[in-house]
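Lab notebook page, bench 4
Experiment: in silico fold of construct C2
Operator: M.H.
Input chain length: 196 residues
Purpose: comparison with the prior construct
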Amino acid sequence: MKKPYKLMPVVYFDNYVLRTLKKTDYKDMYDYGRDPEVTRYLSWGPFVMPSEARRSISQIFYPRIRHGLPIGYAIVDVKTSKMIGTIDFHSKIRGENGAEIGYVLHQNYWNQGIMSQAIKKMIEIGFDYLNFDLLRIRHLKKNVASQKVIEKTPFKFIQKEKYVLEKSNSILEDEMLTYELTKEDYYGSQQSQRNL
């Protein structure tokens, strides 16, 4: 039986490419993962040592295959061949044929529309290639930049709930905002746009 999550397609858009994360990407991951601004609203970071990035790839990303999920995508700047972030289906949605998308991007590449485009590619991959019925994406309320990214995609706001993020050197109390998109809604809106 074919297991598509083990061999993910390479996807190009503008001057960027999504390709499966490699263990050798750890130096580029450390480069943005050590930035406190980049990791402020994430459950991990900032990195202090490059070995933390290497461990993240081998112990967090690679084991996903065992759970029926892709390893995750590196977002690569084609001009420099540098990995500038990741986007991935990091966990399955309990009780549903679906997954949650997570992402992070090097600060030098913020506010250029890169992540909104990457998310749209992930929607196509999730529904067309991995055959999910439901996709979810979330952000902390204080992470306004992430909210703006998600609002440029077809995801619909579902709910907000209180959330406490305990990091190694701080505790962040906030609200977690959840957005979802079903395959049915996505293709229904695509069809209606074609009929206009």
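Observations: Residues 15 and 80 are 10 Å apart (CA to CA). The mean pLDDT is 93.
Next step: discuss at group meeting.
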